[in-house]
Amino acid sequence: MADKHAIEGIMGVSMEKIHEMVDVNTIIGDPIVSADGTTVIPVSKVSFGFVSGGSDLPMQSAERLAGGSGAGVTVKPVAFIVIKRDGDVKLMELGAKGSPVDGIMESLPGLIDKIKGFIEKKKADKESEPESAEELAKLDETK
Fold first, then answer.
1. Rounded alpha-carbon distances, angstroms, from residue 72 to 24, 39, 52, 59, 141
2. Rounded to two decimals, what is the model's pTM?
3. The pLDDT value given to residue 1
4. DSSP secondary-structure letter at 118?
């Protein structure tokens, strides 16, 4: 029964070490603020593996435990969240190999903003134009 506790101890120490290496700050990194006010937040993919095992070794005087454990961790940067000073947020993926449709979908919000700006500018220009020949003549007189 003491051997069971020894293996649990080995596994417990290994899991504690993995927990120390992999936390939320490993996946979503600390924000980096540039001089112009742009904030960049790194995003990573974390993979890990864990193995533990042991065996009883019969000895003449008593049974002994032989055991061990191991773990491996891989941290791979996959993207950056870029937040500009004006509030514009973009996700910049590293090595993303999407289809052309993915590229169109990604650029769609920016295109919609440009169309809205164009329409608002046209409305503002139309509202500032004189509506009648009389108003146009008054404008000419004031100049």
1. 17, 31, 12, 33, 83
2. 0.48
3. 44
4. H
